[in-house]
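Reopening this one. Same input as before:
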Amino acid sequence: MTSLNHLFTNQRTGNHSAQAVSRTDFQRDFDRIIFSSAFRRLQNKTQVFPLPGSVFVHNRLTHSLEVSSVGRSLGSLAGEFISDNFSSVLHENSKQFYQHQLSNVIAAACLCHDVGNPAFGHSGEDAIASYFEKNESDLKQKFNEKEWADLINFEGNANGIRVLTNQQTGKDLGGTQLTFTTLASIAKYPCEAVAKKKGFINRKKFGFFQTEKDTFQEIAKSVGILEENSEPLIFKRHPFVWLVEAADDICYNIIDMEDAHRLGIVSTSDCENLFFDLIKSENPNTKRVEDKLTLITNANERISYLRAKVINALINHSLHLFKTNFNDILNGNLNESLLDIYKNKNPSLQEIESFSIEKIYNHKAVIEIENAGYNVMYELLHHFIPSILKPKEAQKSYDKMALKLLPKQFVYDKGTDYEKVMGVLDFVSGMTDNFATDLYRKIKGIDIGMTM
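Same output, byte for byte:
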């Protein structure tokens, strides 16, 4: 078990020391993320639904802001629990951290939990992975086993660590220069790609590319992440990860339903009944909720009110499960997310999930954007990857023209083939939906003309 006194540090990537300023180190993390270009680009990345014009639905940025709000609440309540129940083993600075700063860590981690996700949601991830799978005969021999595993299993979570820590060409060391504590809190799958394995919560996917392996080991050592295996490298989850994951799960389970209602995909009665049943499963005395609903006649406002009550109920139950399973969380022995534990015992939450899969995630508009996004991302990679892998003396004029479209910070001329490809992936995965679509149309000759 890692000591509660060693789960946090103000050490940052890039070896930047702590500064005596008005904000704490963890508040500075939050602010750095807010002002980063990677976070700003989330405003035009698909959450579930394509941006539908006049009807507002969530994108990755608004989703992340809401997850951060839920995460702050969870962090505050969890910090209070830890400081109250383990005061005898906590150092004075640790008491201060759990009482006043854990909420800032979880809020910051939630804010940046999606920065590694490419355009077009999970279909963007699939397009990147399948590009390498489909071109295995031409490409595989250029990479070692672990590098190839990174590419054919491309993962937004691992990419998030890269986005936040990688030094791009011409830029400062340490990327966004966040604290190791915040970075550890987003590492849901702290293993390398060759170690991913279903059935293990920390290995369902993977959490860092080979380029960030050393950085992640430094993070793990600094905040006491337990090592499960050295070859391949596998760690247990950091305890704070469960809070970040719960905040994300709470939001996307509920907010996607609210968006679907606003778009007319889900009826008001269906949405109300699903939310009300979940509220009732937590507290059978629903008179106060029913009385409030009699005063609200606007359909969207009724759903917003019920959504708020549902999120509050899920926050409270997630905290209860965090407390109940705290020893297993500290030891790295819990193998189920907090929301999954709850879902297994709550038919109302199961019903929301199955309804969402049937009515929302398989809706025609969602499937169409996933198909379009897959093709756009695949073709963009096909435009750059073959050219970047050719030796300079073998590059034709069309290769050189293609590579001129790569911004200089993503070009690693002196790197290995793997590092060169990762630069292309940095560029393509960082694109917004609109930018990726516009560039695709231009290089395919669909749109011709000068735009700035």
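So the earlier flakiness isn't reproducible anymore. For the record, The chain has 21 helices and two strands.
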